[in-house]
Amino acid sequence: MADIKIAGIMRAGAYSPNHIGNDAAIFNIVADQLRKRGCEVSIYSEEQFIAGEVKEKIIVNMCREQQSIAKLQQLEDAGCLVINSGYGIENCTRERMTRILIGSDIPYPESLMVNTNEGVIDAMNRLGMDRVWIKRGDFHAMHKEDVSFVRHADEAQEVLQEYFLRGIKRAVINRHLEGDLIKFYGVADTDFFYWFYPFEAGHSKYGHEAINGAARGIKFSEDALKDICARACQELDVKIYGGDCIISSEGEIRIIDFNDWPSFAPCREQAGPYIAKCILSAIKQNKKK
């Protein structure tokens, strides 16, 4: 495998809110795992990638910059192997993710997709949506204010106005789901899957885990959770993924967030070899084409 040259592109710090160290840690673990398997891995920043410094034809990345994603897509179209796909990364932006998951019949909260300068009070009242989450729809969250929990339609309208004044044109409104909050991590085409209760573990990005509070340990099917996540990663076109779901009091599972290449913070040592295995498998498949 010494002839396998891989470009590893780190995530820009602005897109690792409260997780810069964790994101770098999992990426470096994977790079080391690939080197142990005989690959040559060169690490670049997103700034170097955008500047055109990457020449390798195999690109493993945690990119989030809009310019980076567009460039990844161009390289994919030109025949480069890109993991995660630039198209998959774009699919994990909120509005696209919502449309894809709902359109694929993957369990997901009832949602409205709106312009931030439009009135939503009537629509929310008509649907009986009061406690909701408002999330920027155009791109990945960068700040705590990009995800907002509100308790009634009038407050939702005020938050949307704030989004509009900040230059965010589109937003997704998700119905708030009661139940146990679970965070999960997975790697496509491998047996790796890990889940835990983030509130109990003190694992947080913006502190929103406190809304649902401590988990009650509601029973659910882990096989069903794995199946839902496997379907979601296939529809969204991401191989290395993570996210959040809610388990209702009846044990029903619904995804509320799905991310391309998260930090794997509580399980990165276990996940690293599986991510490397996934990448090498994709390289072998690509060579057969």
The SSE order reads EHEHEHEHHEHEEHEEEHHHEEH
The CATH architecture of the largest domain is: 3-Layer(aba) Sandwich
N→C terminal distance: 18 Å
Number of domains: 3
**Widest beta sheet: strand line-up:** 2-1-3-4
Strand content: 15-25%
CATH superfamily of the largest domain: Response regulator
Give the overall pLDDT as a whole number.
Answer: 91
Calculate Rg over CA atoms.
Answer: 19 Å
Low-pLDDT windows of residues: none
The number of helical segments is 11
- Total E-strand runs: 12
Dominant shape: globular
CATH secondary-structure class of the largest domain:
Alpha Beta
Most strands sheet: 4 strands, parallel
Structural class: alpha/beta
CATH-assigned fold name of the largest domain: Rossmann fold
Helix content: 25-40%
Task: Considering the chains and any ligands shown, give keywords for the structure.
single chain, about 290 residues, alpha/beta, Rossmann fold, Dna Ligase, domain 1, D-amino Acid Aminotransferase, Chain A, domain 1, 3 domains, four-stranded parallel sheet, four-stranded antiparallel sheet, 11 helices
